[in-house]
Amino acid sequence: MDMPTTSLSMEQQFKLQVLREQVKSLSQDQAQEYLLEVMRQNMVKENLLKHWMKNM
Asked: What is the pTM of this model?
């Protein structure tokens, strides 16, 4: 199985730049909450991928 590349596509780079601009205006509390939510969503995604791979 081919491993995905670790570089970002141009679309992903653009989305990251837009996000970078958006988070500049967040307070520290908002930024911490945002980070925790992103981490939670990443963990859910990881669990879904593990479940999917196990059931292949």
From this structure: 0.71
How do the pLDDT tens digits run along the chain, 56 residues long? 565 668 999 999 999 999 999 999 999 999 999 999 999 999 999 999 999 999 98
Q: Which two tokens stand for residue 31?
A: 């930024």
The distance from CA 4 to its chain's CA centroid, rounded to whole angstroms, is 15
Complete DSSP assignment for 9-25:
PHHHHHHHHHHHHHHTT
Topology (CATH) of 10-55: Helix Hairpins (1.10.287)
